[in-house]
């Protein structure tokens, strides 16, 4: 899941 | 970006600003735990290494720089500023860093998603953030007389954590965005640490009396 790889939260 | 996430980020930002405002204008860090602030500086330094490798958004980068800058300036103020440092209560702020840092390092080495330097540091920062408030909570309990700004600082931090949990629930249902269970557990533990403080904070607010924690 690429969504999970990208850590877009702070 | 949903409303919970935005509100969470804004309360996080507000907490840092309240603390900086207190230190900068009153020139006092009474009741503030340097240990907690140093742990947060370490949390941000290990988590935000990705500003050099990934670009997510301008918002994301700016917020990361603010959290890095503010946490290191708070540490600088308490350690180096010639007036502020006099108000630091070293005798009361006795929590040992390594009690928290070493278990978090160990846990990150054992439980992680990927065995890469960046991923291990990120995981370490998640674990450490969950417990970094402990020296501050211990200090509040010891000093008992909590000034308004310090109370608000801790309240805003707790609000930020609670809002992030709502954000994960919301993202799960709307985007099918799965936050890893490591993040879930660490986030829940972190939020629960504030439960006791929240209870006394709301009691004092309801009864309109000064916030005091029981000994």
From TrEMBL, chain B:
Pfam name, any one: ER_lumen_recept
InterPro entries: ER_ret_rcpt (IPR000133)
Keyword Endoplasmic reticulum belongs to the record: yes
Bilayer-crossing regions: 55-78, 98-115, 121-140, 152-170, 182-202
Keywords attached to this entry: Endoplasmic reticulum, ER-Golgi transport, Membrane, Protein transport, Receptor, Signal, Transmembrane, Transmembrane helix, Transport
GO biological process, one term: protein transport
Membrane topology summary: Multi-pass membrane protein
Protein name per Swiss-Prot or TrEMBL: ER lumen protein-retaining receptor
Organism ancestry: Eukaryota, Viridiplantae, Streptophyta, Embryophyta, Tracheophyta
């Amino acid at each position: 899941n690429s969504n999970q790889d990208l850590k877009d939260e702070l | 970006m949903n409303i919970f996430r935005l509100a969470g980020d804004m309360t996080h930002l507000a907490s840092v600003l309240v603390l900086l405002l207190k230190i900068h204008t009153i020139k006092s860090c009474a009741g503030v735990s340097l240990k907690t602030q140093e742990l947060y500086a370490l949390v941000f330094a290990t988590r935000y290494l990705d500003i050099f490798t990934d670009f997510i958004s301008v918002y994301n980068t700016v917020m990361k720089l603010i959290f890095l800058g503010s946490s290191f300036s708070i540490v600088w103020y308490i350690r180096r500023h010639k007036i502020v440092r006099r108000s630091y209560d070293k005798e009361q702020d006795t929590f040992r860093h390594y009690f928290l840092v070493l278990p978090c390092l160990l846990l990150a080495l054992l439980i992680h998603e990927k065995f890469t330097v960046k991923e291990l540091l990120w995981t370490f920062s998640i674990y450490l953030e969950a417990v970094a408030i402990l020296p501050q909570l211990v200090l509040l309990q010891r000093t008992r007389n909590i000034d308004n700004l310090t109370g608000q600082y801790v309240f805003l931090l707790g609000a930020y954590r609670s809002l992030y949990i709502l954000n994960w629930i919301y993202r799960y249902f709307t985007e099918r965005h799965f936050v890893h269970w490591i993040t879930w557990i660490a986030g829940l533990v972190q939020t629960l640490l504030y439960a006791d403080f929240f209870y006394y904070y709301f009691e004092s607010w309801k009864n309109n009396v000064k916030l005091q924690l029981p000994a």
